[in-house]
């Protein structure tokens, strides 16, 4: 429990999100999406919310299949975990995002997103993917992904935004804490 918060304020929910860094011969798979509350489309890695009763690995496979038409299979490597709060009235919901890295499976890109959010799917050179992802305004979607594209690592990292997503994150790679400066300086 957060110090200074009473139990009623902590009655917020926890949400789990999964995402996939899918790499093929120096390219990364990106989806261009636009939710109903998004003013413009933006590029991201495939992923989404884990549904009630669903395991993270099942959600990852489902989201990738829906958004790209590809069927991914283990082994996957956990790249990073991001935790952040999203305001929900007087409380804040705690979101945890698990990002996994995997190699590209065979198959054609055929998005069949039941939510109608995905507009386009593309294999993108890593330098261009970094440029596209840098335009994402929401730091928890942007920073860990770019970090792992530029610095592939064997150890997963934990990214937290304890002071809010508008502040610099605390990053815990390999048991050491440091602060990472954002790629998108406009936030």
What does this structure look like?
The chain is an alpha+beta fold and 187 residues long. Helix content is 18%, strand content 36%. The chain has three helices and ten strands. Strands 1, 2, 3, 4, 5, 6, 7, 8, 9 and 10 form a ten-stranded mixed β-sheet that branches. Helix 2 (126-134) runs antiparallel to helix 3. The longest helix has 13 residues, at 56-68. The protein is globular. The two termini are 28 Å apart. The mean pLDDT is 86.
What's the gist of this structure?
The protein has 187 residues and is an alpha+beta fold.
What attributes does this structure have?
single chain; 187 residues; alpha+beta; ten-stranded mixed β-sheet; 10 strands; 18% helix
Topology of this structure?
Layout (H helix, E strand, L loop, with lengths): L13 E11 L2 E7 L8 E3 L2 E3 L6 H13 L8 E12 L2 E13 L14 E8 H9 L4 H12 L6 E4 L9 E4 L4 E2 L8
Parallel strand pairs: 1-6, 5-8
Antiparallel strand pairs: 1-2, 1-4, 2-3, 2-7, 5-6, 8-9, 9-10
Helix pairs in contact: 2-3
